[in-house]
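Standup notes
- DV: blocked on the single-chain target, sequence here:
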Amino acid sequence: MCERGLNPDGTIAREGALHRVSEAFAPVVDAARSHITAAFDSTRLHSAYLYGSIPRGTAVPGRSDLDLLLALHHEPGEADRVDATDVETAIDQAFPQVNGVGVVLGAARGLLSEADRHDGGFFVACLCTPLLGDDLAEHLPRYRPTSLLARETNGDLGLVLPGWRSRAARATTHERATLSRGVARRVVRTGFTLVMPRWGGWTSDLAASAEIFGRYYPERVEQMRTAAVTGRSLSTDPALLSMLIDDLAPWLAAEYTAVHGVKAPRP
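- DV (later): unblocked, structure below
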């Protein structure tokens, strides 16, 4: 893999692997495998994946969370969500080295669909590490850092802005901190994919993403650096959240539409 996160043929390399999981998080991953297997039998679970800092080998004990994707044989229902929450709670309570656990549910056929191929499909094939079951990446294409990929992954930023503003308006101090981190991560990743085709590579590192973005938009780089820091920490500052939601994100959404167009509507 080259320094720009690409395979020798120019396609985006899968960024995580089980052998990159650090010693501190190895028992967490083992527990995740056990809890998922106990909660979801083979009639429901197609495959399970890790994503985020733990399979990339960059996780920090006490600060990093455990991120999981479960691909089901059917569309997720309420019972699936209840069982996923139980998995989250059991692992989070057992391991102080994880700062929260998140389980995302999806349908395998949806992730493989033409409509989701350059969004959920890309996520599985390049950003997720197989943990259980048959790897869906075997049925997905190799991806390149194109404008199509940029549009289909983050071309809907403008659609989430009203919800962010509504949540910010009624957020408690703790909720503001959580919202700020989530918004900041999404903004930085959108900023990176805005320039991804011009840069010609892939990274999930927030700090690197901000710097790469800044090569093309130096007038906004300080805001993006602030967003990258916020995405790795917790801030309760309402002025910072306002900067993200009311200034940087709206500008970014408009620029994204001008450069890459709008994400294709989903069924």
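- Follow-up: Residues 173-199 form the longest helix (27 residues).
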